[in-house]
Amino acid sequence: MELDSKDERLVDLLAEAGLNRNIARVIVYLSKAGEAISRDIEREANLRQPEVSLAMKDLKSLGWIKEKEIKKKGKGRPLKSYKLSLDIKDIVRELVEKKREELKRLEKDLEELEELVGLK
């Protein structure tokens, strides 16, 4: 379930909205896949293992990801499975609201700047 051109455009837009590109790739991939282990995310989202690990750390701190352990038969560390804790629409809504607030603050600051130097 690799990312197609529409998915890549979504990744681009999420990155332009302020998300780290790797985080955006993971979000878009998981929104399609539903749930996946790290190895699948690496392969299908075209990321390296450290990039996936860092993205997961950030996504956990944002509260946008759920993680569960899958016990393997035999020895070794259990696998971790990941899925989004929010629908991608809710993630986009959060990003859009945050950016709109930033734009309002910027507009206000620009108006104040113009007033201070006598442009208005």
List the uncertain runs.
none
The first-to-last residue Cα distance is 54 Å
State which percent range the strand residues make up. 5-15%
Q: Any idea what the CATH architecture of the domain at 5-86 is?
A: Orthogonal Bundle
How many helical stretches? 5
Tally of DSSP β-strands = 3
Secondary-structure element series? HHEHHEEH
Provide the structure class.
mainly alpha
Mean pLDDT across all residues, rounded? 93
Q: In order across it, which strands form the biggest sheet?
A: 1-3-2
CATH class of the domain at 5-86: Mainly Alpha
Provide the CATH superfamily of the domain at 5-86.
Winged helix-like DNA-binding domain superfamily/Winged helix DNA-binding domain
Named CATH topology of the domain at 5-86? Arc Repressor Mutant, subunit A
- The proportion of residues forming helix, as a percent range, comes to 55-70%
* Coarse morphology: elongated
Q: Taking Cα atoms only, what radius of gyration do you get, to the nearest Å?
A: 19 Å
Major sheet attributes: 3 strands, antiparallel
Organism: Geoglobus ahangari
Keywords: Coiled coil
InterPro entries: UCP037373_trxn_reg, WH-like_DNA-bd_sf, WH_DNA-bd_sf
Protein name: Putative transcriptional regulator
Tell me what the structure shows.
The protein is mainly alpha-helical and 120 residues long. 63% of the residues lie in helices and 12% in strands. The protein contains five helices and three strands. It has helices spanning 5-16, 21-33, 38-45, 49-62, 88-116, and strands at residues 36-37, 65-70, 79-84. A three-stranded antiparallel beta sheet has the order 1-3-2. A hairpin with an 8-residue loop joins strand 2 and strand 3. Helix 1 crosses helix 2 (21-33) and helix 3 packs across helix 4 (49-62). The mean pLDDT is 93.
